[in-house]
Structures are given as structure tokens and as C-alpha cells.
Design a protein that fits this description.
Elements: H1 2-16, H2 19-31, H3 35-43, H4 50-62, H5 66-79, H6 84-96, H7 100-113, H8 118-130, H9 134-147, H10 152-164, H11 168-181, H12 186-194
Length: 195
């Protein structure tokens, strides 16, 4: 019993003094889907850093503790206000909690720093499309298509936006591009038949 306690304390102290070891163990536990253990080994470090908060945000998200995940991602953003990766992490628990206004606000923060970020532009366009705000949706999807004119998802979404705006002739042009990219797309074929 004493030997087991000594080994445990030795391992605990070693982790507390070695962030690289803690991260390594955390990744191993994550790989084994033992998220609580992956979280606890980082908490043993008893220190705050961007990397730890970012990782704890991710692990709590995987562990389906979305409130804690959001909290850690927000800490990471506070420590590195220019971080886009932390904001992309933050949208995961926000979306899981159904907080779409904050998801949108977070993507818009990304776009303030990187106006041409295609992922954020596409997702903002999608949120506006789902809200039936087609003018704003078109604004953001056109930013994507300016940079990636042959992007399947961008052309498909723009086709849908144009259909919703009653611009079927224009929609067909974008849907054709999407179909050229993916000739097997049933979604595009169904939309084309409706035109």
C-alpha cells in the first residue's frame, strides 16, 4: 500500500513539474476516450496558460461539459485576444448549447481580424441563410467565392441563396459549378430540377 501511494505521489509531482509530460499523458487519455483523466492530468499542473486553457476547452467539449468548455475557451481568448483558433474552438460549445447569437458574434470577431477567412465567412453566410437573411448571407458567401470560385459548398450555398431571392437564372450558374465539382451531388440535381 505504501509503495502504491509513493508511486502515485511521485507520478503526481512529476506531472506537476513537467507540462510536456502532462500534455503527453493528456493526449494518451484522449486517444483512449478517457476525457476526464485527460482533463485531470492538465489540472494537476495547477497553472494557467493559453495552451492549457485551449486544451481544456477542447477536452471538456469532448466530455460534453459545454459550459466548462466555453469557460476555458473564453479564458484562452482573454489570454491571447488575437487568437482565431481559440474562437473557432469557442463556437463548438456555443453551438452545442444552441447559443447561435454568440456563435455568430464569435465568427464576426474572427472576421474583424481576418476578413478573408473562408471558414468564418462560409459559416456566417450559413447562419444568415438559415435565418432567411439572404442579403447578408450573399455578402459573406461572395467573399468565399471571390477567393475560391470553384468551391463546392460555396457555390451550392450561393445557388440556394439566389433561389430564395427568386434569381433562378443566376442560381443555375452557381449550381452548375457545384455540379461540375461534384457530378454525383443529389442535392444539386434536385435543386436544378426545381429550376
Amino acid at each position: 500500500m505504501l509503495l502504491a501511494l509513493t508511486i502515485f505521489l511521485s507520478s503526481h509531482i512529476e506531472v506537476q513539474q513537467n507540462p510536456e509530460l502532462a500534455f503527453s499523458k493528456s493526449y494518451s487519455f484522449e486517444y483512449e476516450t478517457q476525457y476526464s483523466k485527460a482533463i485531470n492530468v492538465l489540472l494537476e499542473l495547477n497553472m494557467e496558460s493559453y495552451q492549457i486553457d485551449l486544451r481544456l476547452g477542447w477536452l471538456n467539449y469532448l466530455n460534453k461539459d459545454y459550459t466548462k468548455s466555453e469557460s476555458y475557451y473564453r479564458k484562452a481568448v482573454a489570454l491571447e485576444p488575437g487568437s482565431i483558433e481559440a474562437r473557432f474552438g469557442l463556437v463548438l460549445p456555443l453551438a452545442s448549447l444552441g447559443n447561435w447569437n454568440n456563435v455568430l458574434a464569435t465568427y464576426l470577431e474572427v472576421l474583424k481580424q481576418d476578413a478573408n477567412n473562408s471558414i468564418a465567412n462560409y459559416r456566417v453566410a450559413t447562419i444568415y441563410y438559415n435565418r432567411k437573411d439572404y442579403n447578408n448571407s450573399a455578402l459573406y458567401i461572395n467573399r468565399v467565392l471571390k477567393l475560391y470560385p470553384f468551391d463546392y459548398d460555396g457555390n451550392l450555398l450561393n445557388g440556394k441563396i439566389l433561389i430564395a431571392q427568386g434569381k433562378n437564372i443566376d442560381a443555375k450558374k452557381y449550381l452548375n459549378k457545384a455540379l461540375e465539382y461534384n457530378p454525383l451531388s443529389e442535392e444539386v440535381k434536385v435543386l436544378m430540377k426545381k429550376l
